[in-house]
Amino acid sequence: MAEKSKYLYDGMRLPFILLVTCFAAWGIAANMTDPLVKVFSKIFSMSTLQASFVQFSYYGAYFCLALPAAFINRRFSYKTGVLVGLGCAICGAFLFYPASQAMTFGFFLMALFMLAGGLSILETSANPFVISMGPEHNATRRLNFAQAFNPVGTNIGVFLAATLILPRLNPATEAERAAMAPDALRAIQVEELSAVMTPYVGFACVLVVIWIAIALIPMPTKREMTAEGHEVHFGATLSRLLKNRHYRFGVIAQFFNVAAQTCVWTFTIQYVQDAIGGTEADAGWYLQASLIIFLVSRFVMVWLMGYLRPAMLLTLMALCGTALCLFAMSSPNIAGVWAVVSISATLSLMFPTIYGIALHGLGDDTKFGAAGLVMAILGGALMPLVHGAVMDAQGAAFSYIVPGLCFLVVAAYGVFDLRSKNRMTAQPAT
């Protein structure tokens, strides 16, 4: 009984702390990238749909690299996966320097793809790693606690974008840029792209420090230490996962959860400017406020999960998300702006909760199951294109119908879990 009451297995505290820094790290990258849709659309005079390929490249890499990460974890260990992921992310972040010199949108997309590909491997490894560090009965709550430090990173990412990138955008409009002499326009673009490059190169240096720390610390888990062999039976594993209705629905729910989150945060700046005006830098502070709300709400949700079933909270928050999107659509003013900002409170628990619920009881299939849930991040690549197209056609306010519908799918998964007779109820705090 004493073993079951533990939150972490013996000797896992320091490895857990180091992994928490990884959760913060990919939060920095993701939310430093969100404003780039607006940034590149201005620098390169592109439509919102064209600039949305920033998110297509970023989250598309998550889809492409999650399965290779599962093979790495299965064949070697979670620690190996973490180190490989960090290494690829470091290379991608450093590529922002030559991209700023080349001054081409395609080069930046390539750098983003490598950065995000490394983070995909990192996330595919770190999430189940945290789950394996303690008893299964409180795994979802433990993962929510680790994920609570992800919004610390997201706030840092938005802050870096709001202070180092957005204020350095030239105020010239698209029409004014089109009328400029080529040399004058190029001088402006050089300065703006230098502003984009600086925080990413700094981020790469921080990741190098994290990589060294993790490499030097032994990080086995009890489940990995007692595992029998490392043989990979992908076909049989995939067959079992596809037959698991709860897991299948979890992947779908994760797709639409990430889609909603990416759409909301990516287009917050455009919504704010359309609703109340102001510069990109001014609107960026509303995105910062939404991430602060996300951070505080994540810890509140971890506390609530000591008393309520995770699926119950998931359902309620998803329905609140839909309601806030509908309000933002109908009231494109300061009230609508704060509704968009408040959506982050509903998003706070979704990713780790869906992740933990969907992986519950998978046993040896967890590593490939985790890859499927990270591949579901593809929603963040595809749905912003839909959101951007709707925004170009119908305006920023109406486009929030896209995340509103996504939240309904997440709510349906919460109801599905609540109705499943074999699901565990939430455990009290230990």
Automatic annotation (TrEMBL):
Pfam families noted in UniProt: MFS_1
Where mainly located? membrane
- An annotated Gene Ontology molecular function: fucose:proton symporter activity
**Which InterPro entries is this protein grouped with?**
Lfuc_symporter_FucP, MFS, MFS_trans_sf, MFS_TsgA-like
Arranged from A to Z, the UniProt key words for this protein are: Cell membrane, Membrane, Transmembrane, Transmembrane helix
* Record-linked CDD domains: MFS_FucP_like
| Transmembrane parts of this sequence | 12-33, 53-73, 80-97, 103-122, 143-166, 200-217, 249-273, 285-304, 311-329, 335-358, 370-391, 397-416
Give the location in the cell.
Answer: Cell inner membrane
**Any one of the GO CC terms:** plasma membrane
User: Which membrane topology term applies here?
Assistant: Multi-pass membrane protein
Descriptive protein name: L-fucose:H+ symporter permease
Q: What is the lineage of its organism?
A: Bacteria, Pseudomonadati, Pseudomonadota, Alphaproteobacteria, Rhodobacterales
